[in-house]
Every structure is written in C-alpha cells, then in structure tokens.
Design goal:
about 375 residues; alpha/beta; FAD/NAD(P)-binding domain; 2 domains; 5-stranded parallel β-sheet; 4-stranded parallel β-sheet; 11 helices; 24 strands; about 30% helix; globular; binds flavin-adenine dinucleotide; NAD(P)H dehydrogenase (quinone) activity; FAD; flavoprotein; NADH-Q_oxidoreductase
C-alpha cells in the first residue's frame, strides 16, 4: 500500500487530491488522505466579498470527494516527523505516509508590525472575513483602514466602499495600487477607486496598529474604526520545524519536479512552496497553485510506475482584479508576470473575473473523472525553457 497524505485542501491541495483520485481510482495499492482545518473549502478569491457582507456558496470538501476513494480528515496539522514519515493532527491522531504533499498555503503576516495581531482583521479564513463583515455592519459610520496596497487590499477596499457607502475607506500601503500593472490598467484601477470614494495613502510605512488608529513612520496617524490587514505573507512554521529546507520566508524549497530538495518524498505546492522558474521564484496565486497540485499528482503516479517525474513549467497569463461587483480590470501578462499591452475593463472584465473565480470547484469535480483535463496550463514558452 502506497500512502499519500495531502496537507491542506486549498486551491493547490484540492487539485492534487482530485487529480490523484482520478489517476489512481483503479489501483487497490494506493491510499490518498487529505487533511484540512475545515470541511468548507475556503474560496480565498471571494473573501473580500464575504467581508463586505455578501453570501457566497458553501462548498464542502468531503462532498466533492465522496465516491472518489480519497479519505478526508478534518483537523489541524500540528507536527510533521520527516524521519518517521508521520503527520500529527490535532496533537492526537498520527498519519503515516510514503509520499507527503504539503499544501498548507499562506496567511497574512500579522507578526511583523506591533498591534496587528491584537487589533486588525485578516483574510486568513472565511470565519475571519465574517468577523470583519459583522464589525462593518455594526459600525453605521466611521473609517475602515485597509492596510496593504497589493491587489488583495485593492479588491477589499473597493468591495467595502461599494457595499458600505456610509463608511469612509482608506487604503494604506508602501506601493501605489496596481504598481505591477501597465499604465492603462493602473489608470483604470485608480479611477475606479476614486469613483468609489476610496482614499489612497501610498508610500506609507505602517509601524503600529492601535484600537482606534494606525500609526505611520514619521508620526502621522490615520484614525480607523476597523483595520483590515492584507500586507505580507507568512507560511506555517511546520515545514521548517520538521527540518525541511525552507527559504527565508519559510517556504519549502523544491527541485524542478516540485519535490523538497532535502526530503524528496515530500512534494510542496501552492503558496507554501518556493518554486523557481527561469524568471525567478513564483509568487503565490490561484492560477499557478492549481497547476502545481496537478503536476505533483502526475509526478507521484509517474514515480509509482517507475518513471522519473518531469520538471514543472508555468507561465503567468493574467491578473484579474475586481473593483466592487460592477467593475473590474484584467491585466494580461507575459509568462514572467510583466504586463502586456492588452487590458479588459468594465463589464467584460467583471464577467471574466467571475468566470475565473467560479472555475476551480467545477474543475475539481471534472478532474475526479477526467484527470487529464487538469493538465492544460500555459507552460511559459521561452520564459521557462
Ligand atoms: C482576498 C484574496 C484574494 C485573492 N485573489 C486572488 C486572485 O484573484 N487570483 C489569484 O490567482 N490569487 C488570488 N489570491 C491568492 C490565492 O488565494 C492563493 O495564492 C491561493 O489560495 C494559494 O493556494 P494554496 O492551496 O497554496 O493555499 P490555500 O488556498 O490558502 O489553502 C491552504 C489550506 O490549508 C489549510 N491549512 C493551513 N494550515 C493548516 C493546518 N496547520 N492544518 C490543517 N489545515 C491547514 C487551510 O485551511 C486551507 O484550506 C487571493 C488571496 C486572497 C486572500
């Protein structure tokens, strides 16, 4: 019996699980187990919608896995023994593995600025987003400070401003919103934020979060009745604690086939992995996370057949950004994520963004029956060759 344990049922872990299910369904000698903190699939791409008070679908992982032969364990992974090849869940259950797929994702970095852990809301789970939604609904008036001017911050600020016109929204961060986009997309994004009444405070270094305000370097303060923290990414310390080679952000360093360089029986995928392509180490996205999961599944099956896994190649192709429910902008990109001249805006962009956001769940369902349907993604051409 070859025991495969997948840690995390997010975008990458689910892709690995359903693809393995599809590829091993006729094999009696393979057992696949998925461990996740919740039964509910966290649609991270919709957390800003939840925070703004919208209802989103309640997608259940065990329901999707029903009939696939994949075992689901609900629990919190508390330790990995990479020598004994075991995983500890909720400090009590022990799972043995022959191959481990590490897909625990990342969360907002709430540790590097004092006060964030105590006073700020995050988008680490649907529950966290719901807590912010409750706070915003109860406010009636006041200011929401969205800290972090990356795309998560932009989407959150726009969504909250649109759904809560009674609240003032200020978006605070080091870089100007849409900094990595081309001039056309960036100008569109800025105009949309202005139309929605979002005040942008770029070039700001946040040094402290207090119950009623955010303090910036230089002494300036921004009054805030609610603070959302979207800045930075932190990963689980479990991989480093288990002795796996990790980078300076705690992500597992992988070889070209997505195996840990120190522990080749461990595959690392999604946001928790430091995956190098010719253009640099990939940054975490859903568009890249799902292919890493599928590639890990294909590689594990190849290895079980005595073949060598192939190198993983991926090229980015788009950056879709919602600007509330009625507006969006899509920046199409080169494989290294630099902007192309091609941009979608307005209603066509809203449709595009929603199509992309809604796609993963039905894709997982399809992969349990037709696993090769998940193997189509842009390989990056000359950028990754
Ligand atoms: C608000 C928001 C908007 C975003 N928008 C986009 C977008 O438009 N496009 C895009 O490409 N990307 C977007 N992203 C980024 C994208 O969501 C991530 O890159 C993607 O979720 C990474 O997938 P993953 O499987 O690695 O991790 P995740 O999806 O985070 O999954 C990790 C899973 O592991 C579980 N887990 C973690 N630790 C433990 C533990 N110790 N024990 C048990 N379970 C655990 C979690 O509960 C979760 O289910 C967005 C992110 C946010 C927060």
């Amino acid at each position: 019996m070859h025991r495969i344990v997948i840690l995390g049922a997010g975008y990458a872990g689910m892709a690995a699980a359903v693809n393995l299910a599809g590829r091993t369904k006729r094999r009696e000698d393979v057992r696949v187990t998925v461990v996740n903190a919740t039964e509910r699939f966290t649609e991270r791409l919709r957390l800003h919608q939840i925070a703004a008070g919208q209802q989103v679908a309640d997608l259940r992982v065990p329901e999707l896995l029903e009939g696939t032969g994949v075992e689901f364990v609900r629990g919190w992974v508390t330790g990995i023994d990479a020598t004994a090849r075991t995983v500890r869940v909720d400090d009590e259950q022990v799972l043995e593995y022959d191959t481990l797929v590490y897909a625990l994702g990342g969360m907002a970095d709430t540790a590097s600025v004092p006060g964030v852990d105590d006073h700020a809301y995050t988008f680490d789970s649907a529950h966290d987003a719901q807590l912010l939604a409750q706070r915003l609904t109860g406010l009636g008036s006041g200011t929401v400070a969205v800290c972090g001017s990356g795309l998560t911050g932009v989407e959150a600020a726009a969504e909250i401003a649109e759904q809560h016109p009674e609240l003032a929204v200020v978006l605070i961060g080091r870089e100007e919103p849409g900094a990595a986009m081309g001039p056309k997309a960036k100008a569109y994004l800025h105009a949309a934020l202005e139309r929605l009444g979002v005040r942008v405070r770029a070039g700001a270094e946040i040094i402290k979060v207090l119950p009623d305000f955010v303090e910036l370097a230089g002494g300036e303060t921004v009054a805030a009745d609610a603070v959302l923290w979207t800045s930075g990414v932190r990963v689980s310390p479990l991989a480093a604690a288990a002795g796996l080679d990790v980078d300076d952000r705690g992500r597992i360093i992988t070889d070209a086939a997505l195996r840990s360089v120190s522990h080749p029986e461990v595959y690392a995928i999604g946001d928790a992995a430091a995956i190098r392509q010719n253009y640099g180490v990939m940054h975490g996205t859903c568009q890249s996370g799902m292919p890493t999961g599928v590639h890990a599944a294909m590689s594990i099956v190849r290895q079980m057949k005595g073949k060598q896994p192939k190198p993983f190649r991926f090229g980015y192709y788009h950056t879709p950004v919602s600007l509330g429910r009625h507006d969006a902008v899509v920046q199409f990109t080169k494989p290294d994520n630099s902007p192309r001249g091609w941009v979608l805006t307005g209603r066509r962009a809203v449709w595009y963004k929603e199509t992309v956001t809604a796609a993963p769940w039905p894709t997982y369902g399809r992969m349990t029956k037709f696993p090769s349907s998940g193997s189509i993604w842009p390989r990056g051409g000359r950028f990754t060759r």
